[in-house]
Prior knowledge:
Elements: E1 37-44, E2 51-59, H1 63-66, E3 71-73, E4 81-86, E5 89-96, E6 106-110, E7 116-122, E8 135-138, E9 143-146, E10 153-158
Parallel strand pairs: 2-5
Antiparallel strand pairs: 1-2, 1-7, 3-5, 4-5, 4-6, 7-10, 8-9
Amino acid sequence: IIESGIGFLVQNKTSLSFKESHKVSGSSNALLRPLRRLNVNLHSADASGQLIDGTGAIIGENAEDLVNWSGVGKLMNFGENIFVKSGSEQFALQNRKSLQSGDTVQLMVSRLRNMNYRLRIHMPGVDLPAGAQAVLEDDYLNTKTALSLSDTTQYGFDVNTVNTNSSKADR
C-alpha cells in the first residue's frame, strides 16, 4: 500500500506503471505508524551545524513484515556520505529484526573532507536485550561512547586528510 502523498523510489530496470483503477479511497496509515528506529545524522561541527547526510535502521520483530525487503539502498552523494553496511550491501535505511546481544549496526562513511563533524544519534523506542548497552565505536580513535536510548547522543570527530586513517570508511 502506498499512502496518498507518499513519495518513493523504485530501483528496477523495467518499467512501472499505475492506472487510475489502482487507486483506493481512504487511508490506513500503514506506513506512517510509529517505528523503532536508529537514526544517525552526519552534521558539520561548525556554528552552522549543517545536516550533511543521514542513515538508519528500522528495528523490531515485525520490521521484516513491514515490507518484503532488507532496506533502502544507498545512493551516494557527490560529497560526504554515511550509510549502514551489511555484508556487501549499503543501505540508507536498513530493515532488521530485533537486536540481540552482540549485534552490530556497521556505520560507514565516505568522501569525508578535512573538517570537524558531529554525529547525532537517536534511537526512539529501540529495545535492547537485558544487560546489553548501545555503544558507538570509533576504530580510528579506539574509543567507545555509550548511546542514550531516551535522548539524542552527539559525537564529534575530526578528519585530517593528511592522516588518511581519519577518513577511512570504516573508522
